[in-house]
Specification:
Blueprint: H1 7-30, H2 37-50, E1 54-55, E2 67-71, E3 74-76, E4 90-99, E5 102-111, H3 117-135, H4 143-156, E6 160-161, E7 167-169, E8 176-180, E9 197-200, E10 203-205, E11 211-213, E12 220-222, E13 228-230, E14 233-237, E15 242-244
Antiparallel strand pairs: 1-4, 2-4, 3-12, 4-5, 6-10, 7-8, 7-9, 9-14, 10-13, 11-12, 14-15
């Protein structure tokens, strides 16, 4: 069931989302060759707590870290470790925060130093897919309008979308209805109503759209080990537009 949020709930989700966004941008500034993903996760946890919130992912289904940090062929749910970022790596940084019992969720893929033209084009296309999806998030429209816009732009640029992982509703739980696919047909799916809040998160692969989960039980990678990029915003459907909550 899709929950329409009250004004008070929106206020708290907006706060959690703003905190998640601020922390994401702080982490992005720290990304450079030589930093470990564990150091980056420690920074993210410190910055979330400093703002009076809690890391949304820590403890979720037994997950032990504050963020998901996915490098190169890792699509999502990469586990922070002693891995050292190298020149040319790209890293998806997924941050969630809880404030007043409500969640905000945001992600962006960053470059570690100078990256290849291939990586730059993939990242740009993934970001553009997110922007196009948000543009289609209008009261009275359909969820499939968002999904289709993402899929069509990805394919136009020669990339695969991940069809086994989805965006999701956000509220008093990290994952709520509706599921938000990155593929679909316009004019299908639930009608978008004022008060809906959900995360749109395109995941684009340079090669196949097929995925695998590593033996750690968390890290999802491209089946052919091609590069992947991930961008995400939490949005609110209002009277006349989609408000991006994960933004200052």
């Amino acid at each position: 069931m899709i929950k329409l949020k009250t004004d008070e709930e929106i206020k708290l989700i907006r706060l959690a989302s703003r905190i998640a966004f601020e922390v994401l941008k702080t982490a992005g500034k720290a990304i450079e060759p030589g930093i470990t993903t564990r150091e980056l996760d420690n920074l993210i946890e410190t910055e979330i707590i400093k703002r009076g919130a809690k890391p949304a992912f820590k403890g979720y289904r037994g997950y032990r870290h504050a963020s998901c940090l996915s490098v190169n062929e890792e699509i999502v749910h990469g586990i922070p470790s002693g891995r050292v970022l190298k020149e040319g790596d790209i890293i998806g940084v997924d941050v969630g925060a809880v404030a007043g019992g409500y969640y905000g969720d945001v992600a962006e893929t960053f470059a570690a130093g100078k990256i290849s033209r291939t990586a730059k084009k993939l990242m740009a296309a993934a970001k553009e897919c997110l922007e196009r999806g948000i543009r289609m998030a209008k009261r009275g429209g359909r969820l499939g309008d968002i999904s289709s816009a993402i899929e069509q732009h990805a394919k136009k640029n020669g990339y695969s979308v991940v069809t086994d992982l989805y965006g999701h509703g956000v509220g008093s739980e990290l994952h709520e209805d509706p599921l938000v696919p990155n593929f679909g047909r316009p004019g299908t799916g639930p009608v978008l109503e004022k008060g809906m809040i959900f995360a749109i998160e395109p995941m684009l692969n340079a090669g196949t759209g097929r995925i695998e989960t590593l033996d750690d039980g968390w890290t999802v990678v491209t089946a052919d080990r091609s590069l992947s990029a991930h961008f995400e915003h939490t949005i609110l459907i209002t009277d006349d537009r989609a408000e991006i909550l994960t933004r200052v």
